[in-house]
Amino acid sequence: MSMELLLSEAKTATLWLDPALAAGDHPVSVRFTCEDSDSGHDFDPNSTESGCSILQLERNRYDFTLGPANGSKVEITVIASGSEPGKQQLVGHVLGQRALKDGKNITVDATKAYISVNVGRSSAILIVSAIVGWIYFAAWSISFYPQIWENFKRRSVVGLNFDYVALNITGFLSYSAYNIALKYVPKVEAEFFHRHPRSQNPIELNDVVFGIHAAFATLVVIVQCFIYERGTQTVSWFSRIFLAVVWSAYIVIAIVIQFSDVISLLTFVYVFSYVKLAITLIKYIPQGYFNYQRKSTVGWSIGNIFLDFTGGLLSMFQMFLLAYNYNDWPTIMNNFTKFGLGLISILFDVFFLVQHYVLYRHSGADHSSQSTLISGGGEFPHEHRTSLSKEEEEKLAVAGERASVPTLVRNLSKGLEPQQA
User: Fold this and answer.
1) What's the angle, vertex CA 222, arms to CA 221 and CA 223, rounded to 5?
2) What are 115-149's pLDDT values in tens digits?
3) Whole-angstrom distance, CA of residue 166 vs CA of residue 243
């Protein structure tokens, strides 16, 4: 279990003994020590040191006895001591073995006898952190819809790179599979707790909902790619080969797991998360290069980038906020994958904002000036022509045919008029 405390605050937890063990002849003695990680350390029953630095137990009592005399349960009062916040685990260790009535000895399993204690500086920081968490969750969830609306409004997906879409759907399907398996598949969860006996399941319900929603929104974009004007865009051979390798690996590993014990089910689930991390690293590159080739961001929704940037920035802000509240700065480096990927996503967002507002800020004006070029009988530059849908080009071409002759006659007549002295 976990416990949240503020400095100098105290809370009570209950330690229970299994009823089957409580019926024996001898009570069970348990000693609590403080440890800093889920890996634990070698317990020395002869040591009198508790190892507790940021917390203590009431009356400095760390040894407890459970049995029929006390109803097989004891109340443990945890106090946040000192002036420094932090995180520690209060871990129970059984002293020796215990004889049952039939004379057999049994070792009591105490793997669940622990409390993860977080001592924070301020409850206000926790409230702000929760609000920030919901804001960035909303920003990331909504970030898919500006691109969907942009495609719908233009009836075109020209300008949206198909490699980005293909990588995205594989990434979010993998992310969803990882979340669902670790959260709802009992065998996977049991294996996780076997490897990490004093850890909490890292997957929350909002992680599952976000992954499924993201995959659904990306599928909507894929449908738009089939029904709307897409020009000559296709998925590149690099992405096709990469995705073929990924999905083939999923199938092969699933078959291996079915017929052997070479790879555990939890390891297979971790593979889904590794693929998601790899895709997050590379998925923005094709779109950025595509914008560079076209010298335009037309068709690539900047609203998506603003929301993604907002979500990423707030996510990192929350990490620093919690690190400060619990004086737990090493956590950021220990979870460098999450921190690093968040930072990379923000850097890509900044790059796209620079493309849109600095490097190719006139691409929208070029887009609107194309009708003027056509109506005067001119020719589109190729890079601008790809920004329009087929329907838009046909309308502008018809308008150009109608306007070209009268415009030419008016220009010639003006040229023949006598000039004033």
Assistant:
1) 90
2) 888 888 888 999 999 999 999 999 999 999 999 99
3) 8
Tell me the three state secondary structure of residue 88: strand
d(C-alpha 39, C-alpha 135), whole Å? 34
Structural domains in the chain plus CATH codes: 2-120 (2.60.40.10), 123-361 (no CATH)
Those residues whose C-beta lies under 8 Å from the C-beta of residue 350, and which sit 6 or more positions away, are 309
- Name the more confident of 336 and 116: 116
Residue 27 burial (CB count, 10 A): 18
What pLDDT is attached to residue 371? 37
Tokens, residue 231 = 């020009």
Using an 8 Å Cβ cutoff, are 212 and 177 in contact? Answer: no
Distance, in Å, from the CA atom of 122 to the CA atom of 6, rounded to the nearest integer, reads 6
CA-closest candidate to residue 164, choices 56, 90, 236, 227: 236
The C-alpha torsion from 48 through 53 and 57 to 62, rounded to 10°, is -20
**Cα–Cα nearest to 146, from 312, 302, 353, 363:** 302
Determine the 3-state secondary structure of 280 from DSSP: helix
Give the SS3 label for residue 161: coil
Residues 380 and 376: their CA atoms lie apart, in Å, by 11
The β-bridge relationship of strands 63-66 and 28-35 is antiparallel
Question: H/E element holding 253?
Answer: helix 237-259
What whole-number distance in Å separates Cα of residue 272 and Cα of residue 284?
19
Does residue 389 carry a pLDDT above 60?
no
The pLDDT of 297-313, averaged and rounded, is 93
C-beta of residue 55 within 8 angstroms of C-beta of residue 117: yes
pTM (predicted TM-score) = 0.77
Residue 183 predicted with pLDDT over 50: yes
Report whether 151 contacts 326 (CB < 8 A).
no
Among 140, 139, 138, 160, which residue's Cα sits nearest to residue 149? 160
Instruction: Indicate the SS3 state at residue 149.
Output: helix
